[in-house]
Amino acid sequence: MVDPNQKLEYKRVLLKLSGESLGGEKQTGIDPDTIAKFVEEVKQVAEMGLQVGIVIGGGNIFRGLSENAARMDRVTADQMGMLSTIINSLALKDTFINAGLNAHVMTASQMVDFAEPFSKGAATKYLNAGEIVIFGGGTGNPYFTTDTAAVLRAIEIEADVILKGTRVDGVYDSDPEKNSDAVKFDKLSYIDVVQRGLKVMDSTAITLSMDNNLPIIVFNFNITNNFKRVVCGENIGTTVQR
Description:
The protein has 242 residues and is α/β, with parallel strands linked by helices. It is built from seven helices and eleven strands. Helix 1 packs across helix 2 and helix 4 runs parallel beside helix 6 (203-211). It starts with 11 loop residues before the first strand and ends with a strand.
C-alpha cells in the first residue's frame, strides 16, 4: 500500500547491487528468498512512481578479478564476469515479472535471444512507462567494473542519483565488519573518496561521477524499507557529491 504522505525525492534512479547480495548468507549462487525480498523493496517504490534502472554485479557466479581467474587471460575472465551479470539480470527480470511488474534486460553486447541491446531511447521509453530496466553485461568491455557500468548507464538515462546498495550502512574509514572502531562518514566529496582510497566504487567510476556531477548514496539495502527511505529523502547511508 502506497502512503500518500510520503513523497519521492527523485524521479529516476540507478540502483547498483553486488552479485554476492543475491546469494544471501552464502553470497554465492542465487537465493530465491533473497531475490524475492529485493524485488519487493524495488516494487514498493516503483508503485509510488519512481523510475528504476538496475545494474547487478556477477560475483556470486564468477568475477574476472578473482582467484578462480588467476591463470586466465584477463579479457576472457572479464567476459565470463559479464555473462554472470546477465544471468543475474535475467533472474531479476523473471522475479519482477512474477511480482507483477514489467521488466526488461538490456545488454551492452548483443545477445538477442536473451535480451535486447542497450539503447538510451528504448531504456527511457520503458522507464517513462514505469517499467524496470536491468542493464546487464557491464560496459561490454574488459577492464571496466560494473561500478563503472552503473555510472555510465546512470548518465545515459539521466538518472538523478546512483544508489549503491550494500550490506553495511554507508562508507567507513575502515571495514566495519572487521574493525569495531571504524568511523562512518555521512558525506564525502569525490576527491575525498579517491584520496583516502575509500571503497565506495573504483576510481574510474568515481571520476566519471564527478565529471558529470552525479551524486552517489551508499546505504544498507538488506534492511527492510531502507530503499524506500533513501528515495524519500531520509538521511541514511553516505552521500558522495561535490
